[in-house]
Amino acid sequence: MDAAQIAEKIIRLLDQIQDKIDEITRLVNAVLSKIPGFLSWVVDKFRDAWNTMLDKLAEFWDWFTDKLSYVGNPGLLNDAADSWTLAGGSVARINDTITDQALSVDDRWKGRAADQYEQSLEPQRRANTSIMSDYAQNIADGLSALAGGIVAFWAGIAIAFVTLIGALAGAAVATGTIVGLPAVPVLVVLGIAAFLTAGGAGVWVLTNQASSCRTTLDATSAGITQWPAIATE
Asked: Given Cys at both, which of 19, 25, 88, 138 links 132, Cβ 3.0 to 4.6 Å?
């Protein structure tokens, strides 16, 4: 799933939330209009609870202020990881040509220089292997892990959405009677609180995943600890 698909799915879910809130508001207004004047104190108490609900709802919308500005791009990260794996594998396969059997230097070249070059073959092979195992693969693993973290984060948010929509559906049912009316804002607040709790946990996990990825990428600079002398002299 790419960034555009994730954003599109989240926006659809947000639209569902807004539609359900609008439905609840219409139903509540319809019930309130039927409450007799001598029960105005009940209406006042309900409005206090409703205002508390609106504050929590505002907190819910605010939570998405920066979340949708950049949803992440796990598809692009996975593509980049695959490219690093491919590049590292290509370098590692060069080792197949750096062998006594594959090279003709010892057939056409004799003396101390030939002996010195032959001694450099194994360090060259180790350096090529290190490029794959200690450098390219580490980068690929870090990028793939971050991509997986982003997908898991939004998948968790989607599940939290389902829970919230269920709470809103229950609130809509409660609007059917005057007796059930006081439960409406309570159910909405509980649903939003559950969502924000899940969202906060998801942010914490994703932040740790991103930090781990950064640590892995930073560490790759020390992956190839020593180039063969023939490459540096």
From this structure: 88
